[in-house]
């Protein structure tokens, strides 16, 4: 029995259902399991990053920002730190949503197809960036907008 099946982590869809771009080798069970584990790891990492950022924000808000009796430079620095923490938290939330969406697609057997054009994203791209839900062409078009 293949290692992925022994661990009870075989994807719901058969390995042959995971698409590849022209010229790429088919997915192996080990490669699929590696992608699964990387997505789960990304989800856990982003959840922790959000917790840390929210804790940092809570601390910054507790310090207050009214500036009463504080040097204007200190107030500006505190505001900058708060903005940075808010930006980090938002970025982590967006990355978490991407990872969760990719994992849902993975579990439903729809992983690896571009959400815009429906063509294979490409095994090479997914191995580098497992959260990808668009092929390179569609992603480039989206970024130009």
Question: Which terms would index this structure?
Answer:
145 residues; elongated; disordered N terminus
What is the succession of H and E elements?
Answer: HHHHH
Regions with pLDDT < 50 over 5+ consecutive residues? 1-8
Distance between the termini: 48 Å
The SS-based structural class is mainly alpha
Approximate helicity band: 55-70%
Mean pLDDT figure: 82
Largest sheet: number of strands, sense, barrel closure: none
Strand proportion, as a percent range, falls in under 5%
| Computed CA radius of gyration, to the nearest angstrom | 21 Å
Number of strands: 0
Gross morphology is elongated
Described by its quaternary structure, the protein is single chain
Total count of helical runs of at least 4 residues: 5
Give an account of the 3D structure.
With 145 residues, the protein is mostly helical. The chain has a domain at 25-109. The protein has five helices and no strands.
């Amino acid at each position: 029995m293949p290692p992925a099946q022994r661990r009870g982590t075989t994807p719901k869809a058969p390995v042959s259902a995971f698409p590849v771009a022209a010229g790429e080798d088919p997915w192996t069970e080990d490669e699929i399991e590696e992608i699964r584990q990387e997505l789960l790891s990304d989800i856990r990492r982003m959840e922790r990053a959000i917790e840390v950022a929210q804790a940092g924000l809570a601390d910054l808000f507790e310090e207050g920002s009214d500036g009463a009796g504080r040097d204007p430079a200190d107030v500006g620095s505190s505001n900058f730190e708060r903005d940075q923490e808010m930006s980090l938290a938002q970025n982590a939330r967006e990355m978490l949503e991407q990872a969760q969406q990719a994992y849902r697609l993975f579990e439903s057997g729809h992983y690896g197809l571009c959400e815009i054009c429906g063509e294979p994203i490409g095994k090479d791209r997914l191995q580098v960036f497992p959260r990808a839900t668009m092929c390179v062409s569609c992603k480039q078009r989206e970024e130009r907008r």
